[in-house]
Specification:
The protein has 312 residues and is of the alpha+beta class. The chain is 17% helix and 34% strand. The protein contains six helices and 20 strands. The strands form four sheets. Strands 12, 13, 14, 15, 16, 17, 18, 19 and 20 form a nine-stranded antiparallel beta sheet that branches. The protein starts with a helix and ends in a 5-residue tail after the last helix.
C-alpha cells in the first residue's frame, strides 16, 4: 500500500512549534556590544530580555518588563550592579528583587525573572530556564575560536540543528561517499550523535580537504534543540559549534569554529563555508514534510528528544 505523507508524519509537539522556546543556551549578543554600565533590551525567545553589565564587569539578564507598570528596562540605567527603571526609578538588585523605590520606605518585594549568563568566545549566552541543564561544550586546549558572522535562514532552528544528523544527504548534496557504516547514539534526555567516516567523490573537494587518500572522520552531536557540536577527528582536529534561535523570518544561526594555528585552519574555514552554502540554500527554501523512512533514524531521534524537552 502506498503511504501518504500524512500517514507517516511524526506527532508534532515541541518540534517545529513556532512559539515553543526550549530550555537551552542561546546567543543574546556579542560581548563587545555591552560595555560596563550599559543596558539594552533584546528581542528573543518571543519576549524582551534586558542585558546589563554592572561595575563588577558581569553581565546579567532579566525579563525587560518592570514589575511596576511594565516599562521596558532596556531604557533604564545601571547603578553599581543594580538596574534602575527609567519610568519611576524602581531599582532591582543582582538577585532580581526590587530594593529601592523613590519616596517609598518599604519597597514591594517584587522580583524579575533572571536568566543564567555565560560569556564565551566573544558572545553573551543566556540559558532559557532557572538553572542550566548542561554546560556549554569545551574544545581542546591550543585551538583558537573564530566567530563567524550570524546568518539568517528561512527555516525553523530545529531543522538547522538537526541537519547534521541527516546522514543520507551527505552523498547527494556534498558528494561525500561513506567508507564506513555510520552509526548513531542517543544519550537521553538531551543528546543525539551521528558518527561518520568518508571521503569526497569530487576532485576539487579532495584537494581542498587534503583527503585524496585519507578519510574525513567526524561526529555530529545535537545538544537540546538549538545547539550542535561537531568534532572533526581527521584529517585535522577541530570543532564547530552551531546554534540557532527563532527569528521573525525563520532562524538566526551563529557558528563558532575552534581551529589549530596552521594552514589546516584555512582549509577547514573554506570547507565549512562551502558546505554551509549548500545546506543553507536548501534549508532556506524547504517546505518540511516529515515523511520519515528507515534512513532517517537520526532525525527521528532528534524529534523525540525535542518533544520531551522542557520549555522556558
Amino acid at each position: 500500500m502506498i503511504e501518504t505523507v500524512a500517514e507517516t508524519r511524526h506527532k508534532e509537539e515541541n518540534f517545529l512549534h513556532p512559539e515553543c522556546d526550549l530550555q537551552g543556551w542561546y546567543v543574546a549578543a556579542r560581548s563587545k556590544s555591552l560595555k560596563s554600565g550599559d543596558v539594552r533590551s533584546v528581542d528573543m525567545l518571543h519576549r524582551k530580555i534586558a542585558l546589563y553589565r554592572g561595575e563588577d564587569g558581569q553581565v546579567r539578564a532579566v525579563d525587560a518588563v518592570c514589575a511596576h507598570l511594565g516599562a521596558n528596562l532596556g531604557h533604564g540605567s545601571v547603578i553599581g550592579n543594580d538596574l534602575e527603571c527609567a519610568f519611576h526609578g524602581w531599582r532591582y538588585g543582582t538577585d532580581g528583587i526590587c530594593n529601592y523605590v523613590p519616596h517609598v520606605e518599604n519597597p514591594p518585594r517584587r522580583k524579575l525573572r533572571q536568566y543564567p549568563v555565560q560569556e564565551k568566545w566573544g558572545l553573551i549566552w543566556i540559558f532559557n530556564g532557572a538553572k542550566p541543564l548542561w554546560d556549554l561544550p569545551e574544545p581542546d586546549e591550543g585551538l583558537f575560536p573564530l566567530l563567524m558572522p550570524s546568518v539568517q535562514l528561512g527555516c525553523h532552528p530545529h531543522l538547522m540543528i538537526a541537519n547534521g544528523l541527516d546522514g543520507a544527504h551527505f552523498e547527494p548534496l556534498h558528494h561525500m561517499q561513506q567508507t564506513e557504516t555510520p552509526y548513531l547514539t542517543v544519550d537521553e534526555p538531551y543528546e543525539v550523535t551521528l558518527y561518520l567516516c568518508g571521503r569526497s567523490t569530487h576532485p576539487f573537494w579532495r584537494r581542498l580537504t587534503a583527503t585524496r587518500t585519507n578519510d574525513i572522520r567526524a561526529h555530529f552531536k545535537t545538544i537540546g534543540g538549538n545547539m550542535a557540536w561537531v568534532t572533526v577527528e581527521e584529517p585535522v582536529k577541530c570543532y564547530f559549534l552551531f546554534t540557532g534561535q527563532p527569528s521573525p523570518k525563520g532562524c538566526r544561526s551563529q557558528v563558532v569554529l575552534f581551529l589549530p594555528r596552521s594552514i589546516q585552519a584555512i582549509r577547514a574555514i573554506v570547507t565549512l563555508y562551502l558546505l554551509l552554502q549548500d545546506d543553507n540554500k536548501i534549508l532556506s527554501d524547504i517546505n518540511f514534510k516529515p515523511g520519515f523512512i528507515e534512513t532517517d533514524e537520526g532525525l527521528q531521534a532528534f524529534v523525540n528528544i525535542v518533544n520531551n524537552m522542557p520549555t522556558g
